[in-house]
Every structure is written in structure tokens, then in C-alpha cells.
Amino acid sequence: MGKTIIISNRLPVQLQISNESITAIPSVGGLATGMKSVHSGGDSLWIGWSGLTDEEIPQELAPKIDEALAEHGSSKVKLTSAEVDGFYYGFSNRTIWPLFHYFLEYSEFELASWDIYKKVNQKFADAILEKATDDDTIWVHDYQLMLVPQMVREKRPDISIGFFLHIPFPSYEIFRTMPWRKEVLSGLLGADLIGFHTYDYERHFLSSVRRLLGLDVSFNDIYLDDRTIKVDSFPMGIDYKKFSDAAKEHAQRSEEQKSELQKRLDTHKKSTPDAKFFLSIDRLDYSKGIAKRLNAFEYFLNKYPQYKEKVRLIILAVPSRSNVPQYQLLKKEIDELVGRINGELSTVSWTPIWYFYRSMPFENLIDLYTTCDIAWLTPIRDGMNLVAKEYIATRTDKTGVLILSEMAGSANEMNESILINPNNFEQIADALNQAITMPKAEQQNRNSILQKRLERYNVEKWANDFMTSLRNQKEGNTTYVSR
Ligand code: ADQ
What we know:
- By secondary structure, the protein is an alpha/beta fold.
- Helices cover 46% and strands 18% of the residues.
- A nine-stranded mixed β-sheet has the order 5-4-1-6-7-8-11-10-9, with helices on both faces. Strands 14-13-12-15-16-17 form a six-stranded parallel β-sheet, sandwiched between helices. The protein has a two-stranded antiparallel sheet with strand order 2-3.
- Strand 12, helix 12 and strand 13 form a beta-alpha-beta unit.
- Helix 8 crosses helix 9, helix 10 (240-251) crosses helix 14 and helix 12 (290-303) packs across helix 16 (425-437).
- The longest helix has 21 residues, at 111-131.
């Protein structure tokens, strides 16, 4: 059996350059953690962009960077800053991301950025072809690399290729608006297995394949002349143990061991013991519905004024894609909304919204997850939403209420949370009231079911299920008889 090659836009390590020395530090993101069992389990290689453009890497340090990456089983694809602009900030995040999240009006269809997207996908494919042998297994990740499977297939017809999309696949009526829709579908069809977070995304994809390419599709198989392609859903889990262990350790901390943030949260909890903390954590992205959530919070306080001075909304927004104009506008909108709502409603002893615009260390995430009574995660569209799962995993005493958007992929597996439509302020206000007044026993009942499910279907199982399915598909294809 050959090695496994994982390909994603970014590598699972971050480079730190100081003076002449280079260090590659493993990153803690969901994908990196999720693939740990696949990546460190055996012979494997991870190919991706290092996060530094060619212009940012001093010539003399290039070999050291390669060495540092190789120590983590990684190999880089070189990109110029113009390529990163056109491919990442351009086509990936100004065309595909908004379109696939149903923000059709934000989607730009520019030939120049499509050309760069193709060129950079070819660079990734070439990097794979350089390293791969025919008995290797290739796992391509996400919307930035949708042409890679076919580009590899053309040169290596017999190699095993899987593709997983981390964002929604939109309905045919949305997808068909893209000028290069057939090319994108054909790019994906180079894979043997195509995975999505949910059954709905899978159905949308199959519908587009049938209607745009006229291919023979039956249940979740696509029939080509020489092979079949399996399409299936694999809802991504979290590293459950990491989050539950961190929460258990957190509960044992002495006063001196606590973080500054935790001490501050404790002080506020003590001063108003019946107060409730709402938590909202997302990357700052229009698909996450942060501005809507702020407006809904104001609506809630008007509908239920008895909660004024009793509730506090903690918003953690992680900076993201700040080179894209839509993200800059959104940042401005959120800054203004927070300022206006706090300005209008604050009293001498109460600021309704605490707003943090930054990335936080893992320790502080755990502070927030374990301290906040209610997690309020209401994206307008979200492929999965791992924050919802992480919140539940940290609730060691099983208390806490999750209010989750039905538009998040995770809603399919988290029926015991309070599911809401993020556009329905009336329903949201009532859901917040329900969460505040929910008896402890009911919280514990709901969360114990959720925890069991999340612990069982964790990220390791997700990765292993995908790889097993890919292996089975490949074995089936070697004995393939065309219909
Ligand atoms: P994202 O859109 O980034 O991922 P999400 O699934 O919520 O969204 O994952 C965010 C991750 O970042 C979480 O693991 C969280 O712990 C971490 N994080 C959040 N806030 C942080 C902060 N302030 N500091 C540090 N870390 C923070 C995309 C898709 C999702 C899909 C995932 C995985 O958009 O829908 O669930 O990929 O497939």
C-alpha cells in the first residue's frame, strides 16, 4: 500500500521566522487536528501553501523552510503574491465562497481571477504529481482546490483520489449562475469519492451533475464510461477528548492559575449571580450572521425588558480575509452596531455587549465555553460549524444551552439544541427567553444526548470513515463493469 497525500490550501503548520532560524509549529485548527490520525498514523505527506508568498521568503532561507516543513511531513506549493490575490482573495473568496453560501449578490465573476484559479490549481496538481506514485491515496480538501482531482486524474488514471468540501454545496438554481459551472463539476469528478458535511449538500451536488453534465446518476453513484464516483455525506466531528479534557482541567484551577479573562468573568458573575452570559464566536464573515445577531439581541431586550442589566452578550469575532472589501464593510457595520447598542442601552453598572475582535489562545476559548450559560450560534449559512460542537464538549456538568441556526450543517446532528431560523427575530427572542428559563435537569438531559453523539462521531472517526469509503470505492472500481 502506498502513502496518503493530503492537499489543502494551507498546511497544518505555521512558520515562524526569527533572524536566521525557521520553526514550523503545528497549528490547532479543525482540519489539522482532524487529519492527525491520518497524517501521523503512517506514511503520509501534506501538501499546501505555507502562508508566505515567494516575495516574503528570503532566497537564502528557502532550503531551511523546506527542511522545517519536511520534519512535519509537509511540503509547500510556492505562490507569488499576485497568485494569492487572484486565487485566494479573488476567485476562492469573492466568487465561490459567497456563491456557495447563497450570497449571490456578493459573487464576482471575473475571467482574470478564474484564470488564476485554474493556474494555481494546476500548481497544486503538479506538486502532487511530482510526489505521488500510482499506489498512493490522494485526499484533496475544500473549495480552493476543486479542479485538482481532474488535473491529477488526467496524468494518473489509476490513482485513488478523494475530495471533501468543507462548505455548503448550493442548490442547482444558485450553482448554475456560475459561468464556469461545468468546468468546476468536471474538476471534482476526477475524484473516486466526493464527500460533503450533509445529505442536503450531497443532493444539491448530484442534481447539478445530472442537470448540467447530463451524466447517469443513480442514488449516490455517478456513472462514467470507465469508473463510478461515489458521493456521500461525512459530517465532520471535533477532537472531543481535547475539549472535554481541557474543560475538566479548567474546573480544577486555583485562583492563581486562572487567566485574566477568567478572573474578570468570575468578578462579573459574582456581582450579579442571576445574570446570564450569551456567547457568540465566529470568524468575522458575513455568512456567520453576526450583524443580524446584534440586531436580534436589541430586539430581544425590547421584547423582554426584564432582562436588561441581567444578560450580557460576549462576541468574539476572529479577523478573517480583511483584504476583501465585503469583510472590511462588515467589520465597520459590526463596530457601529456594537457602539450604537451599547451607547443606547448601557447603564452605569451594565454594558450589554462585550466585543473582542481578535483570535484567542485555546485557553481563553475554554474560559468562554465553560463560563457562558448560553451559546448563541446563528450563521446565515455554515457548512458545519464546529464551535457549536466544541461548546457542548466543554460542558462537563452538562448544563448550558445551545441556540443554533438551522442553516448550519451541524443542526442536522444537534436536534437537542434550540434550533432557530436566523432571520426570525421573534423566534430568536423567544428562544433566548426559553434558554434563560430552561430548568437545569432539562439542560442536562439535552446535553448528555448531544455529548454521547459527539464523543462517538469524533473527528478521528470522520477521517477514518472517509478513508475507508475511499478504499472501498477504489476496490469496486478495479472490477468495474460499465452500465
Ligand atoms: P470555519 O468557517 O472557520 O470553518 P468553524 O467550523 O466554526 O468555522 O471552525 C472555526 C474554528 O476556529 C473552531 O475550531 C474554533 O475553535 C476556532 N476559533 C473560533 N474562534 C476562535 C478564536 N477567537 N481564537 C482561536 N480559535 C478560534 C469551515 C466552514 C465550517 C466548517 C469547518 C470545518 O466554514 O462550516 O465547520 O470549515 O469543515
